[in-house]
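Subgroup meeting minutes
Present: P.N., E.W., G.H.
Scribe: E.W.

1. P.N. recapped why we're keeping a running log of single-chain structure predictions: easier to compare across weeks, and new members can see raw inputs and outputs side by side.
2. G.H. added today's entry (751 aa).
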Amino acid sequence: MGKEKNETIGGDIEGSDLNIPKLYNVLDDYYINKMYGYSNEMDAAVSDNILSLVLDDFSMKFRIVDADISEIEDFDYSIRKFDTNELVESGERTKVESDIIDLHLSSLMEENKEYSLELKLYTNGKTYHYYSRIIRSNTEFLKKLIDMANTFSNNNFDSNTARDNSVYLESDGTGNSRGLEYVTLKSDFEMISYNGMSLTPAEKEVTLVNYNGKVGEIHFSFTADAYGKTYNIEENFICKSGAQRLYMLDYTRTMNQKILNKLTVDKKIDLGMGNRGSRIITNAKVDKIAFLADNKLFLSDGKKENVDVIYSCGKNNYIMPLKFGDGLYFINYGYNLDDSHIGEVGVCLLKYMEDTKKVSKLAFIKTDVDVASLKESIDELAYMGDSGMLYIKLLDKVVGLDITSGSYVTVAENLETGKYSISQDKSLLSWNVGDGLNIYNFAVGENKQLDNANEVMLPIGYIGSDLVVAIQSQNISNTVNGKSVGSIFEKISIYNNLLELQKEYTYDGRYIDNINVSGNRVHIELYQYDGENFTRLGEDTIISSKSVASESRLSSYADSYRGKNYVIDYTKKIDREISYSKTLEIEASDLEYDIELNTSYLKNMYYVYINSKLKGIYDDPVRAVEDAYTDMGFVRRNGIMIYVRAMVDTASNINFEASAAGEYVNYWENNELTRFRGITLKEAMYFLTIKKPVFTFTAINNPVILTGYDSKTVTIYDINTSSIQKIDINEAQSIFNSTQNDFSCFFTFGM
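Output recorded in log:
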């Protein structure tokens, strides 16, 4: 964290990573916010979880690391507004004289308002793009925040100094179920202080995530050693300034063991603390297993009685095993995957041959999107069948790549949340096409259609290969306050993989909504319609006798430190130690796919971050806010902060002009307001904190505007009576709840 910071802490780094200079934001004695260079211009989400500070004199400093400075020629920069993409300032191309880039900005930046910075380095005929959100704010509080977090972090390594941290703890017995791999302020003292482990930490990587001069969120990542083992540790702090001291609003720590050169194998392989295998596949004879742990791909061979690490990657890319065939096929996806694609984001299809211990690169798919968005899509669908076709989801489309011919087909596009479904084994995709459905079987490369006359069908989910379909009501529109809130359903149908109807469920005049498929169960809520409104009556669960595949090879145990350790089980004993292959010789193919993606899709999506990491991407702002509220997270869309729970003030008031009330009615009628129907009054208070009036209803067709609140009351402007009223906060919550919490705000997303 100090001036001598040169090392990259946490995670393996591929050799190609060293070919790209990295940047740190310089804040006095701290080097924070490690920034990676991209070969192409990137979307706004690439800087969602990194924020750099403009100093009081409107200067910014960045340090170049992992580079020969003599090879870097020039730099320039540009600063834009997030809401309009308007250029605020740009710097001319300037020669790089040392490892410090010193920017002297104009005074056009407003205090405590975020802007977008793009800084470009020119080196050896290449251009690398670096991105950060930037803000001009209270620098002294930020330095105190980093110091306090660092002290808290260091205190926890010694049970004596850890006592000083007890003032922050909220232990209630609910935070211990996951042991040392996941610790919060609700965990007990022993968990906070590593339960007596004698850990020696390395230097920390520090990232500033959010900051407004009063509340800040920072993230630490580092390694620590104990008893010949090394652990990856990440800590997330949300802190608030107070009159006497800093207050810790939230703290989360995750911990997992790095897998080094010695593992115990005896009918099982112990992956160590926190290394839950994210995907496990077997061959047809079930004598070979491929699995992931610690960002490494392992291959076990029951006949040869050995386990090899066959591939590893860095912290900004990921691995997924796909299938066994004439070798083990897998993908590596993310940033900076190999020397031929420096600074690019994409997907590599690879094949490992066990006899030669070589990896062949079969294809590369280039994508100009941020790594988090790519990972969200690939994790949702990546499948390779016996036909040799690779099917992957890229944002809102699914493509099939023919590796033998180098061509590709678009299987589906413009997929909308709630209107498509993927089977658990990834072999089936169904999506709505107007009234009916398309069902694509990736295993055989076959497309079928399901279309029943006069029925609008939505694919809800799969139970094995059986498709659960909701049939939309054609006679009744589900509206609240005069506007549609989505479909209401009249029955549920279940079809097998031959599209034969297996079962149909109706409920005697009652309607169905909020349908969720989990395992072999379908959970639903039932509603009654009185001619004007829907009233929730209860819920029901449809249970299928069909077995749903689950991975039983993964088990766990708690060690003496209450760390949760994960284990891969085998059917026979393997006596040998894990062997690590030497640097693999990768045979590269020239086959590349440059697939045009719908980047406007990303601009419409809501990104939810929990503990500074992407939790999910949604098209529904309500679901995004609810997720963020539960776990002290935040929501961004196209670079703009939509919601952050930690930054809600205890009281707020807006100088609302009554003459603007009519405009808000027009905004509502013309769908120009972002609708948050279903969030709570407490959640809606964030918008008042950032001085955005909230349009809502106190009764059907009685529109009001929320203009302020304190601990006891809510202030509203009643549009119909042109009057200002104060309502008891508990009464207000009841009133807004009765009109289904139909809150709306005005946001500009710079489309």
